[in-house]
Amino acid sequence: MTELVFKGKEFVYNHHLAVPFRPLVPHPEKGIGPVALDGNLIIHGDNLHALKALLPLYAGKVDCIFIDPPYNTGNEGWCYNDNVNAPMIRQWLEANPVGIEDGLRHDKWCAMMWPRLRLLFDLLSNDGVIFICIDDNELYSLRLMLDELSQSSSNWIGTIVWKNVTDNNPTRIAVEHEYIICFSKDKNSVEKIWKSKLSDVKDLLVRIGSEFAVEHPDPEEMQAAYTAWFREHRNELWPLDRYKYIDADGVYTGSQSVHNPGREGYRYDVIHPKTGKPCKQPLMGYRFPEETMHDLLAHDKILFGEDHEKIIELKVYAKDFLDKLPSVIELDGRNAAYELRQLFPEQKKAFDNPKPTQLVDKILSYATRKDSIVLDSFAGSGTTAHAVMNLNQKDEGNRKFILIECENYADELTAERVRRVISGVPNSRGDEYKTGLGETFTYCTLGDPIELDKVLTGENLPPYAGLGAALFHMATNHALDPSALREDDFYLGSTAGQHVWLIYKPDLDWLKSPEAALTLARAKAFAAMDPDKKHLVFAPARFVSQKMLAEQNIPVEFVPLPFALYRIDRS
Question: Which residue intervals define the domain DNA methylase N-4/N-6 in the entry (predicted)?
């Protein structure tokens, strides 16, 4: 496997490990609905720190990541801001923004992306996938980086070419596209076939079928009316431009799936209803036994030709159509600006270069389940959240979104767009945005770093849930389940091999009192909950030795709180 080399790689290779954990601080007045860190989230803060803050709650739980990072064109004004402890990289902080004349701009871009991608892969589930928008400036660097980070080029799923513009300017080769690279964490765990039930053309044909069935109850009149309509609109119906028939059950086409593939199938006669003669049989016979064919005939699911010389076909209805995700998507990029004008009618231009909701919506319809968690750490105008909510409305799903945005417009634009999509925009020029979709979200910022060696000094004492989530993740390499946490009992949760406890309150006097210590009685009480499992207990102090615990066969191990970062157990 080819290794990507760039200046500064040795300094950022493990920089994600040096990034401190920070608690998520909710701001109820900026969200909609009750605060819920396990629900829809919008986080305002540096995405490197925000991704690290998400690890304790979401490590290995994110099903789909869709990001639109800077393309590094030299004209975007992005800045390198990571606090890496290396003289060369500290000099980069003084040379912002990264412009077209910067000879190190490609190195800086790789150094910026590397730790973020490391954390994104940590958050991704084993069967999860990541989509990254990019253009030719960093396409090849990104592909090599993903090969290396996923430890195998075989985890590449594919690359989508998005034809988003028509360039009529005189040039050598008109660039009219961008790319969306798709990678997996473990390709063998990802579903082998992606199909989507969502299609605008499908919805149109289903509606037309219902309308014609009411307007033309006579089957022959219905077919004649639909044939006229179909001929007029056929050029607009791809990929359903073969669905030229209609009956009381809807619009349909004929499929040769009655044929038995590859080997000899069933042999029997199917009588043509007009000629009264047996229809021509497929070369290898029928794939269905005769009883199944009788049932299909009884329910009018077989399509006959003009006479018995044509092999019968199976009726396949538009309502049952499952679309495939193509490697080329043609969608006008200007649609995104139009959407924002509808959502922000008071603004002339809300955001530069947004992505169309339809693009993200389409991709997520293939790559997510109805209960998937979708993450976007370069949230921009909030398109990904909009697409998730749209998709939930279309298929009655319960997907959740997590958006991260570092810029100052996180509240005024990113979150405001989500608020308007949820609540509706009565003065929008487009009817589709006047009524809201009615979901909820929690708006968060990042709290002070959780530095365990300062806990007993009283500096920036973190909340119980924030510290507990960080310790649980460090001790087990798993995300904390917030529903399992019992703060009053000092219980954090469990994994397959152990239970984890944290004796802590964000109160310095209490932390220095005997109440904060692990005692023999407390150790026995913890172990009694599940004597067959190990119990890991974080606490500022203890009044019982590990030797005594072992002698009494109490499966409890003490970890001193200020040194917990250095004494962790990943069993």
Answer: 62-410
Residues 476 and 410 in one domain: no
161: part of which helix (H) or strand (E)?
Answer: strand 156-163
Structure-block tokens of residue 549: 């615990």
Whole-model pTM? 0.82
Cα 177 off chain centre by: 23
Strands 491-494 and 498-502: antiparallel
Residues 78 and 99 occupy one common structural domain: yes
Taking the C-alpha atoms of residue 221 and residue 212, their distance in angstroms, rounded to an integer, is 9
Phi and psi based region of residue 516 (left: phi greater than 0; alpha: psi -120 to 50; beta: remaining): alpha
- Percent of the chain at pLDDT > 70 equals 97
The total of other beta-carbon atoms located within 10 Å of residue 189's CB is 11
> What φ, ψ does residue 245 adopt, rounded to 5°?
-115, 160
- What whole-number distance in Å separates Cα of residue 104 and Cα of residue 119? 24
Quick one: 316 and 227 in the same domain? yes
Query: Judging by beta carbons within 10 Å of its beta carbon (0-12, 13-18, 19+), is residue 216 exposed, middle or buried?
Result: middle
β partners of residue 323: 196
- Per-residue exposure over 328-367, b if at least 16 CB sit within 10 Å of its own CB, e if not: ebeeebeebbebbbbbbeeeeebbeebbbbbbbbbbbbbb
Give me the residues paired with residue 156 across strands.
183
What is the mean pLDDT for each group of 10 consecutive residues in the chain (571 residues)? 88 90 92 93 97 93 96 86 82 83 90 96 96 96 93 90 91 94 95 89 95 95 96 93 95 91 92 96 93 95 95 95 93 92 87 92 96 97 97 95 96 97 90 91 92 68 89 87 93 92 91 91 95 93 91 92 47 36
Instruction: Using alpha carbons only, give the angle 49, 52, 56 rounded to the nearest 5 degrees.
Output: 145
Quote the number of domains for the chain. Answer: 3
Final residue in a domain of this structure, among 272, 291, 320: 320
Residue pair 364/357 in contact by the 8 Å Cβ criterion: no
What are the residue ranges of helices labelled H in 124-199? Answer: 139-149
Residue 71 counted as domain residue? yes
Residue 389: CATH number of its domain: 3.40.50.150
How far is it, in rounded angstroms, from Cα 201 to Cα 386?
21
Q: What is the pLDDT of residue 568?
A: 38
Domain ends where: 285, 320, 355?
320
Bridge partners of 182, per DSSP, are: 131, 158
Q: Which domain holds residue 547?
A: 452-563
Least Cα distance to 86 among 20, 16, 9, 145 occurs for 9
Which two tokens mark 472? Answer: 């649980």
